[in-house]
Write a structure and sequence with these properties.
Number of strands: 22
CATH class: Mainly Beta
Strand content: 35-45%
Shape: globular
Strand order of the largest sheet: 7-8-9-10-22-18-17-12-15-14
Largest sheet: 10 strands, antiparallel
Distance between the termini: 40 Å
Order of helices and strands: EEEEEEEEEEEEEEEEEEHEEEEH
CATH topology: Beta-galactosidase, Chain A, domain 5
Number of helices: 2
Structural class: mainly beta
């Protein structure tokens, strides 16, 4: 049995607006919590998790994927895709990364913040925590991911934050600043491929400054995945005029990142598209915690006329700079 924090509704006033947190049911789960500032809202699950199952404009569609047949269920012995935003460990392990998150979680309300803590995983000995803090105005949300080693031995892993987006949109990722030969001779970033990566995939477009990946619900081909690195890394997803942006900051050398140095990865198949950021690989001693923070934002009425660098510069750069 899990503990749900203190009160059912918390109202926090700031100088300009209010963040309201209230207990609610969502898609068959009775113990969810909704956090909203009147412009955007996020919903976290209490019956499974930690998961952020919804993020969108108030009254608008969910930008996050939902697997309808898995909504409202819990207690499954195997990991469930389910949808939304989740927390994993990297590099990807076919067993330990897929530790089930199908049990109730502890939820604590702290003013404009929700803290969701999973019980220690029997499979890994890790305790996962997601903290969601919403700005009182605008659309910005800070999402902090923490993984505590509750075992008796050191554990080496990277914190991996994965957001599953709804079908039918297009993802964008900006490469680090480009240069010119022969002035700029040093490499700037990896572009990592998986065995199933296909650079000729019709869903994929590589520009000089951007990676563009389209989610196609009618795709009958294999999945597609690519990874990259940037000091100030970001990914965005455009669906029906709404743009979701997630950003994270990388640590400087000597920090090492998984998958040949990736702190950003994107994946798609016929069911969803995923934007993922990763923290550095750490050897976490018993009792210690590794953390990784993302910043989310939503933007309305975003329209891209053509898929080239100049147009993406015009539309996207004002929405992903300045943090």
């Amino acid at each position: 049995m899990h503990r749900l924090a203190t009160i059912l509704t918390v109202l926090t006033m700031s100088a300009s607006a209010a963040v309201k947190i209230e207990k609610t049911s969502y898609q068959g789960w009775p113990n969810c919590y909704r956090i909203s500032n009147g412009v955007v809202e996020a919903i976290v699950t209490g019956d499974v998790g930690p998961r952020v199952i919804r993020y969108g404009f108030v009254g608008g569609p969910n930008l996050f994927k939902e697997f309808k047949e898995q909504m409202g269920k819990s207690g499954e012995p195997e990991w469930q895709a389910r949808g939304g935003h989740r927390l994993w460990i990297a590099p990807e392990d076919p067993v330990k990364s897929y530790a089930p998150d199908n049990a109730p979680v502890d939820i604590e309300v702290r003013g404009d913040t929700i803290v969701i803590t999973e019980p220690v995983e029997p499979l890994t000995g890790l305790e996962k925590k997601i903290t969601v803090r919403m700005d009182a105005a605008g659309t910005d949300v800070e999402v902090t991911h923490q993984i505590r080693n509750a075992g008796k031995q050191p554990y080496e892993f990277a914190v991996w934050a994965l957001t599953m987006l709804a079908q039918g949109g297009t993802a964008f990722h900006g490469f680090p600043p480009r240069g010119h030969h022969p002035h700029d001779l040093e490499p700037t970033n990896p572009l990592t491929m998986w065995p199933y990566t296909n650079l000729a995939d019709s869903r994929l477009k590589l520009l000089q400054k951007y990676l563009v990946l389209r989610q196609d619900p009618k795709s009958t081909g294999d999945a597609e995945k690519l990874g990259s690195y940037g000091r100030d890394v970001w990914g965005a997803y455009l669906l029906n005029g709404d743009l979701f942006v997630k950003q994270a900051h990388a640590e400087a050398a000597p920090a090492e990142y998984p998958d040949f140095g990736c702190n950003f990865e994107t994946f798609t198949n016929a069911d969803f598209l995923e934007l993922e950021t990763l923290g550095p690989i750490r050897k976490v001693a018993p009792g210690e915690t590794a953390a990784h923070t993302e910043h989310w934002s939503l933007h309305k009425n975003v329209h891209i006329q053509k898929w080239d660098d100049a147009e993406l510069d015009r539309v996207l750069l004002p929405l992903v700079t300045g943090r």
